[in-house]
Amino acid sequence: MTSPQRFADRVVLVTGAGTGLGAEIAVRAAQEGADVAIHYRSSEAGARRTAERVEAEGRKAFLVRADIVEWAQIKRMADEVWNHFGRLDVAVNNVGDMASEQMSWREITEEAVDHTLAVDLKGTLMCTHEFGSRMLEQPEGGAIVNVGSTVVVRGSARAPQYAAAKYGVLGITKSYAQAFAPKVRVNTFAPGFMETERMLSREDYKNGRGDTLREMTPMRHIPKPEEIAGAALFLATPDATHITGSYFVADGGYNMIGA
Predict the structure, then answer these.
(1) Quick one: which of 177, 171, 127, 129 has its CA closest to 148?
(2) Is 162 a catalytic residue?
(3) What is the mean pLDDT of residues 126-136?
(4) Measured distance CA(8)–CA(70) in Å, rounded
(5) Which of 81, 91, 121, 137 is the most buried (most CB within 10 A)?
(6) Structural contact between residues 229 and 27, judged by C-beta atoms closer than 8 angstroms
(7) In this predicted structure, what is the pLDDT of residue 72?
(8) What is the Cα–Cα distance from 51 to 54, expressed in whole angstroms?
(9) Rounded to an integer, what distance in angstroms lies between the CA atom of residue 36 and that of residue 27?
């Protein structure tokens, strides 16, 4: 299937693009015509694999390393991207910590709270601030997609700090959507459950939880990251030019929200 060229000759940055959803968003952006800045913190090998896939699509790939819990590193990353490409049209703030090793709220620690809030909340805020403020100086502005979660609908008895952080992402999105309008749009993309390598390796998922989730999902399917990458990027396309400050859900109907 030929992908639509929604990002022809555009530059897209994806944080956490060495694995999982971030990698698939980066590759999908390339398939749709974009050159891609691939961010990673520790997964250099994964980032290089993503770069190879981007280049296989005939597009340019540029690797940038940064720990997004430090603003100085985010600023350096932004400098590198702008120096290399001369601009940035789309930023997908995908990096997040799900506290996936924590199976119960009883296991929560102060360290786990601090880490999750630093990555999901502080990191997303600083990336949005840094990329968006620079996009404002560009003639054509830009678009930012913050990857949130449907955990904001039900909360999380397993990992309350993760739910708290993703609620905060909505506040970041709405605040900067107002601050940057009309030149830079900011939206939240909220995926539901995905069959990532991490999810597939979890014992509870292998021992029945996967089947239960499929039964509870109206679409009767738990997607792989590549199946929803295009939906995430939709928020940055010309078709979404009147969408900002929104919360866009892709969960197969699992968390249907009432009017």
Answers:
(1) 171
(2) yes
(3) 98
(4) 32
(5) 91
(6) yes
(7) 98
(8) 5
(9) 8
The arrangement of strands across the sheet holding 184-191 comes to 61-65, 35-40, 11-14, 90-93, 142-147, 184-191, 247-250
Phi, psi of 248 (to 5 degrees): -110, 115
State whether the Cα torsion 18-64-134-34 is positive or negative.
negative
- With tokens 């990532």, the residue in question is 196
Residue range 5-56, pLDDT digits in tens: 999 999 999 999 999 999 999 999 999 999 999 999 998 999 999 999 999 9
> Quick one: tokens of 216?
């509870």
Distance (Å, whole) CA 88 – CA 82: 7
pTM score, two decimals?
Answer: 0.92
What confidence tier does 104 reach under pLDDT thresholds 50, 70, 90?
confident
* Length of the chain counted residue by residue: 259
Spatial neighbors of 91 by CB under 8 A, at least 6 apart, are 12, 13, 15, 127, 128, 131, 132, 135, 142, 143, 144, 145
Catalytic-labelled residue, pool 40, 162, 176, 205: 162
